[in-house]
Amino acid sequence: MTDATSPVPRDLTGRAALVTGASRGIGLGVARHLLERGAAVTITARKQAELDEAAASLGAPDRVLALPGNSGDAASRTEAVDRTVERFGSLDVLVNNTGINPQYGPLVHADLAAVSKIFDVNVVAALGFVQEAYRAWMGEHGGAVVNMASVGGFRSSGVIGAYGASKAALIRLTEELAWQLGPTIRVNAVAPAVVKTRFAEALYVQGEDEVASRYPMKRLGTPEDVAALVGFLVSDAASWITGETVRVDGGMLATGST
């Protein structure tokens, strides 16, 4: 159903969502889209100042809860989930968006502590949030989970190989969870290519037009492109979709190029 002033359906009204890593970029775009569709949203991030700014930009203070915390910390995950249920009365949607990439270069020379940190935040923390959501609400009431993967999870990623490997693990985790948690909890993932965010800036800042020329759509992605897909996957319109990783890559993988 759509209201009279907006083309965005209000089909998530009455539902509560938790979006991690949502102070900027894709996470903030997802939070904004879910709000526009009627949901109440908790956003998390490590830095209080950036999180406060993000919350202010979203408006709707009665439907936004901003909680600072580190996704890699178990206590922070518990607090985020419990505070969401306490504030909004449910936790119907979980978007595991937090991702890091502190390792760059050949894996044979990689700092293993950095590689471990990538997997801990990009994969283990995502599972940790699912466990907390299951404990606090979804186990009894159901819900929808979306994990933020990457096209790097589908093929070799070169100098960001540890990041790509972590996203491949997240794709497999998505499938396992979908199988184990159905039919009441749906678990899907989305896999963006290069999206114009601060996180991905190093991949295009030296020549955006040249990078975009490699894509059939001839442009880079935006947070809004990804957010619209997430909004669909957590809605009832996707009620028979689970265990999927949907590419939102402007056709990049279809080209077969690196």
TrEMBL record:
One GO molecular function term of this record is:
oxidoreductase activity
Sorted alphabetically, which InterPro entries does this protein's record hold? Answer: NAD(P)-bd_dom_sf, Sc_DH/Rdtase_CS, SDR_fam
Question: Which keywords annotate this record?
Answer: Oxidoreductase
Q: Does the keyword Oxidoreductase apply?
A: yes
Pfam families attached here?
adh_short_C2
Keyword presence, S-adenosyl-L-methionine: no
Q: Which residues form the signal peptide?
A: none
Q: Which Gene3D superfamilies match?
A: NAD(P)-binding Rossmann-like Domain
Family statement drawn from the similarity comment of this UniProt entry = Belongs to the short-chain dehydrogenases/reductases (SDR) family.
Q: Tell me the protein's name.
A: NAD(P)-dependent dehydrogenase (Short-subunit alcohol dehydrogenase family)
- Organism for this UniProt entry: Actinomycetospora succinea
Q: What is the lineage of its organism?
A: Bacteria, Bacillati, Actinomycetota, Actinomycetes, Pseudonocardiales
